[in-house]
User: What shape does this take?
Amino acid sequence: MDSAPVQSRQRPYKPPVLGRGQTFDTVTDQISSVVDRTQQPRAWWIGFGIGFVLLNLLLVCVSCLFAWGTGIWGVNNPVGWAFAIINFVWWIGIGHAGTLISAILLLLRQDWRTSINRFAEAMTLFAVACAGIFPIIHTGRPWVAYWLLPYPGTMMVWPNFRSPLVWDVFAVSTYATVSALFWFVGLIPDLATLRDRAENPIAARIYGTFALGWRGSVRHWHRYETAYLLLAGLSTPLVISVHSIVSFDFAVGVIPGWHATIFPPYFVAGAIYAGFAMVLTIAIPLRRMYDIKDYITGQHLDYMARVMLATGLMVCYGYLTEAFFALYSANLFEQYMIQNRMFGPYTSIYWLLILCNGISIQALWFERVRRSPVFLFIICMFVNVGMWLERFVIVVTSLHRDFMPSSWFMYYPTIWDIGTFVGTLGLFITLLFLFIRFLPMISMFEMRTLVPAAEVKEEH
Amino acid sequence: MAQVFKPSSNTYSRLVLSGVLLGVGGLGLVGYLLNTSPYNTGAYMARSQPVPFSHKHHNGELGIDCRYCHTSVEESAFAGVPPTQTCMNCHSQIWTEAPILEPVRASFRTGQALEWTRVHDLPDFVYFNHSIHIAKGIGCASCHGNVAGMNLTWSVAPLTMGWCLDCHRDPAANVRPREKVFDTTWVADNQKELGAKLVSEYHVQPRQDCSTCHR
Assistant: This one.
């Protein structure tokens, strides 16, 4: 080993991912001060207020749904799946960026992930929570939703294991469990910091309970690092598998527009794309609200925008492939499907989708756009909308005109469809603001490793 | 700085954590056991009836065939509960003064049917058909137990869907020769081989799709 030339040991240049002049103390003080302070900035109250109002809208919509049944939605034959599955796929896709950032970027030693992984993982959890609501309320009888699980009951009837909908149950519940564990384990050292800083004894006890007696000893750190790496290893395949299985919900069906082998990679790319757009949608206002530009720097925005550009182009490749396969298949139904998508009754939605997902991101080729919070935020909004429209196009335009013209029908959402969707946005926003209020939104102990004083010089 | 927790907190936290895990698992187990027990299914509990009719006496001791009273069991979904006239076929001649039979005679005089309490009551969304089971060699005893030995009548089966499916998934465990269907005391010496043989001989093909029982 020693005979290897010194040159090969030098690492490639990495741009700094932490503002100048930060020390161990400033990092800890600044991040935990968000939680420690008794009065939150006005922006927090406004954001939380909006979220809370919309959360109540969700409660109203879901209560009415339970009382009156799924008939209050616009779904009917042949579009039996609409907003519920669109929202489910949209939300679960958004979560994927958090897992990618926390697991894959950790294993790839991308240290810029450090300042965004905590809230990105929180975003994952909240997005999965929002996503999980939809399949359950879509069953129409949510009080027997536990029938989705294989358990020995008096009926001794099992879910159909050949159905991707059952795979979904396992994929999503595994995803939720592993994400929650990963997030919690990553929080433990910071919870201990908050425990030690807390002036309110009740807060100290609450933080202390969840800190699990963390003292920061070498043994603690050793076990912690092992556990964290193991969880990262467990999460890594989930980035790929969960959305692949979600795509099987469609790809296994024989409906033109669904039955395509491109679906798993296309969905995974779309998930990461949508997820990074949502991470940026959260990060850009946050760094303004709490003045944390030293932690989430222009470099971070640049990196995330590059991931968006790359995955966005993959998604566009998916759109092209769908059109090409329809042409190449020589299959009348496939060809009609793509023609109907582009020029049928939902034509405006298709072209809006292409505008949002395909054209708007071309601006990201320019570094000035990638580093401009305002421009980036606008593009992210386009992508958020575009990815939702993509699922609308896949679900609704494929279903509303299938093989038999006599069963063709248009789908229009009712106010309950829209209210439920907007309501889950409220749930998401509410949870996010509560998270910011009560937990450190940036991993303090990992940020401390980026401080210049923590750098380990290699000896030659 | 003072410690937030005492050392005993470690023990408490372990107790709470294991309590939660065991509690959730235990609750599930208790729920399952209660749900499948006679407490919930009502099996092995004799019901009170207007007249304490004894299957043991009539069928087991006197040897009256099941079909003498349950006349439609071979042709229809419902086995049939006998009208009072069937009872009076004999009881107009014997035990004509027995006080225990007064409700039967009252029913005969007024034409008001006796109101028996159902012992085997399936939910209304289940369409059970007696005739096909009889035709395929499922004995009365497979579901109703040894009725010829019951003084009062009770059920021996939980009548849960899982119990139905047990047999629909493995009919060989219960199929018997057609001539033994109404003999509730009969037990095969070699049910396994006999069942397999009869399943192919009688073309027993129990279906398990939802619409077989839930139309």
Notes: The domain at 23-440 of chain A is CATH 1.20.1630.10 (Formate dehydrogenase/DMSO reductase fold).
